[in-house]
Specification:
GO molecular function: polyamine oxidase activity
Number of helices: 12
Shape: globular
Main location: cytoplasm
Bound molecules: flavin-adenine dinucleotide
Cofactor: FAD
Keywords: Cytoplasm, FAD, Flavoprotein, Oxidoreductase
Subcellular location: Cytoplasm
Length: 456
């Protein structure tokens, strides 16, 4: 943020710059600024006691568990996160291989290792593959309307449903199989909601959906934890740059502020913290999450932001993805199993489940990702769900109901999965974040250009 008032900087010193927020965006900005000889007076004001924000790797299960971001999407040379991670030596051999970097996924999530239906029993992998082919061919079609003069539906969700109805007319199987196909498609809708950070694909506008570019490279993870990246960036900063436990209350800008220790010097910006502390500056880089900005827009900037910026903040969506970690005494899955899909029978993307979400939130869980076993300690699993406030993510009744209904039972474990003995929610919906990330494009978005905030 740069104020229009252009006060002179004190001779012999560069401008004072404040970065608000110590997530990867704030740390990245600070790292760049620190390298620049013109910016010697730099502070990063971080609300909490740690840096990294939505990137947080825990060792609660005796190994690395990603509470926030997990994957580098499109890990190839055009991806700055990949480049930085590679430079710091944080990636494994496979992720760094040219072969991995060349893989074109088209942004499609790979097939699960195994799918279970909520009535018990596994679902035919052929049927799952057939529905995935259909779903992703339709998703590919949605990208064709980028500059189209006419669009067949306002949202991605409505377009997909319309097309699915047409395909259904050609389905010749018995009713039971047709219902199962719809339930598999429903799971794929949920996956897409997770990817897009939205509760419903009906909220994602069709016409600009194709603006989102998928980089080549099969998604990869950090063997030692994603947080290694933000830790390394932070370690590269001079010692006194980070100021922790400094939640910013209001950014006064376009003014003329003085500081007792710098008589005669005036600053166009004054950053006021919750604890009463004030930091005058020439420039401020604001990297707080969109969810926080939405909630505090009326008081965070004084004077208020220009209408165009304020409207963009109001209208861009910010969805919630939560993760729940479950730990089992014995794995009940095959050693090579990576991803377990749960297909809830009698669910359908053609029905609006929103009113029932309070009672059936767990039906939005997209699946389980098996985490590696940590030496002697038990192997935990991770699962992720979309648009579920953490308070609604207790281990009872939803996850126990998953067990109770038997669809996770005994494959190939001795007598079914042992009770989950640990869990952990993600801090995403906390007071300094208010969500997880933004959908690619939101319906009724004020401007035509798409914005995606992943990776800051
Ligand atoms: C569960 C989950 C899974 C995800 N998975 C992936 C993934 O696999 N791959 C991927 O690329 N991305 C993923 N993301 C998104 C990714 O984590 C974020 O896009 C990225 O970390 C955002 O970085 P940031 O610096 O912009 O914001 P943040 O990391 O949110 O940092 C903002 C910082 O600002 C601080 N702050 C807030 N308010 C104030 C204030 N008033 N004063 C001072 N400081 C303040 C916060 O404490 C925080 O440290 C995921 C996110 C979540 C929540």
């Amino acid at each position: 943020m740069q104020s229009s008032g252009r006060q002179a900087e004190a001779p012999g010193r560069g401008p004072r710059v404040l970065v608000v927020g110590g997530g990867i965006a704030g740390l990245g900005a600070a790292q760049r600024l620190c390298c620049h000889p013109a910016f010697p007076h730099l502070r990063v004001l971080e609300a909490t006691a740690r840096a990294g924000g939505r990137i947080r790797s825990e060792r609660s299960f005796g190994g690395v568990v990603e509470v926030g971001a997990h994957w580098i999407h499109g890990p190839s040379q055009g991806n700055p996160v990949f480049q930085l991670a590679a430079k710091y030596g944080l990636l494994g051999e496979k992720a760094l291989s040219e072969e991995n970097q060349l893989i074109e996924t088209g942004g499609h999530v790979g097939l699960p290792s195994v799918s279970y239906a909520s009535s018990g029993g596994s679902v035919s992998p052929e049927l799952v593959a057939e529905m995935a082919r259909l779903f992703y061919s339709l998703i590919d079609q949605t990208r064709e309307f980028l500059h189209a003069a006419e669009i067949p539906a306002p949202s991605v969700g409505e377009y997909l449903k319309k097309e699915i109805r047409q395909h259904m007319a050609g389905w010749t199987e018995e009713e039971e199989t047709k219902r199962l196909k719809l339930a598999i498609l429903n799971n794929l809708f949920n996956v897409e909601c997770c990817v897009s950070g939205t509760h419903s694909m009906d909220l994602v506008a069709l016409s600009p959906f194709g603006e989102y570019t998928v980089l080549p490279g099969l998604d990869c993870t950090f063997p030692g934890g994603y947080q290694g990246l933000t830790d390394r960036i932070m370690a590269s900063l001079p010692k006194d740059v980070m100021v922790f436990n400094k939640p910013v209350k209001t950014i006064h800008w376009d003014g003329s502020f003085e500081e007792a220790s710098a008589p005669g010097e005036t600053f166009p910006v004054l950053v006021e913290c919750e604890d009463g502390g004030c930091f005058p500056a020439h420039h401020v880089v604001v990297t707080v999450p969109l969810g926080f900005l939405k909630e505090r827009l009326d008081t965070f900037f004084e004077p208020p932001l220009p209408t165009e910026k304020a409207e963009a903040i109001r209208k861009i969506g910010f969805g919630t993805n939560n993760k729940i970690f479950l730990e089992f005494e014995e794995p009940f899955w095959q050693p090579d199993c990576q991803h377990i899909q749960v297909v809830w029978r009698d669910t359908s993307p053609l029905e609006d489940t929103a009113p029932k979400l309070q009672d059936a939130w767990f039906k939005k869980l997209v699946g389980f990702w098996v985490l590696p076993s940590f030496g002697e300690s038990p192997a935990p699993r991770a699962q992720e769900c979309a648009e579920v406030p953490l308070a609604q993510c207790p281990i009872h009744p939803g996850l126990l109901q998953l067990r109770g209904r038997g669809q996770l039972r005994g494959r190939p474990g001795p007598a079914g999965p042992a009770p989950p003995c640990g869990r952990q929610g993600c801090p995403a919906p906390g007071p300094v974040c208010r969500g997880s990330h933004t959908p690619d494009v939101l319906l009724h978005h004020a401007r035509s250009s798409a914005v995606r905030l992943e990776g800051g």
